[in-house]
Design a protein that fits this description.
Blueprint (H helix, E strand, L loop, with lengths): L2 H17 L8 H8 L30 H15 L15 H29 L2 H14 L1 H10 L3 H16 L23 H7 L8 E3 L3 E3 L1 H13 L8 H17 L4 H7 L4 H18 L17 H4 L3
Antiparallel strand pairs: 1-2
Helix pairs in contact: 4-10, 5-10, 6-7, 8-9, 8-12
Length: 313
Amino acid sequence: MRRIPLVLALLVLFASGCAHGPQPAPDPLAAGQAAGAPAAAAPGLSPAAVRPVSDETGAAPQQAGPAEAAEGEEDDLDYEAEPPSTAAVTIADPLEPFNRAMFTFNDRLYFWVLKPVAEGYSAVVPEPARVSVGNFFSNLRSPIRFVNCLLQAHFIGAATELFRFMINSTIGLAGLFDPAGSEEVGLLRQNEDFGQTLGVYGIGHGFYLVWPFLGPSSPRDTVGMVGDFFAYPVSYLDPWYVRTAVRGYQAINDTSLTIGDYEAIKGAALDPYVAVRNAYIQYRHMKVQERGTIGTTEPDIPGAGSPARRVRP
């Protein structure tokens, strides 16, 4: 009986020791949420799926729901995604010896004849007057752009070209000025041709071709130039030498406004022939791909478009 109080005392001491013993290790997830820090991501979820959600009242952050988790994963993917690479467009060149000979001919024609005449012309005629002449010929090419917009089912572009022609032919004094393309009106030139229309219909270039006087082309764009010829009012001037003289003057005026473009391409290239060929095919591919755009502000030079084509070599 004397041992009973002793046993009871030992039991009381043992119980009190267990009550004040070591606490269990804290849960990192719970501790992080209590401190307001982002919780560690659970397996199979992105960090955004468990990011803290708090409000201005200071409420404890909560784990994001499934909808937010999906949104967070999309954000991560968008952030890490790389822009798609654009493959270079190439063209067959089975007639390279002939094309190089024509390229050399056009190159000499440009440096020995066309450029000196254009430089002398620009020294006499001020730039605003030459720009007005370019606007005049651009206005005459409106039928080409209008018809090709219709053929490409780009009806907004066709209407734009129609109203451009009406405004520039009247208020613009027969096309010498371009009030339709001003910021107030905003009717931009479409720059469509028959070669681009054939490309929209899925007809490929075929192979690379360089024509004397005309410059880079292909069988598809050669057929397109024939279509442009019949849609261009200047082509119907008679007799033939009047038509040729007007075309020659147009080429001189256009060249006077683009002197330096061809020189820049040739000076920066190891092989100017290849550089012009690549520039031409890339530009024509881009023009077909951007079918249906509202407008363009690039120069509208007959028979061309790209710098490589405008300077003819």
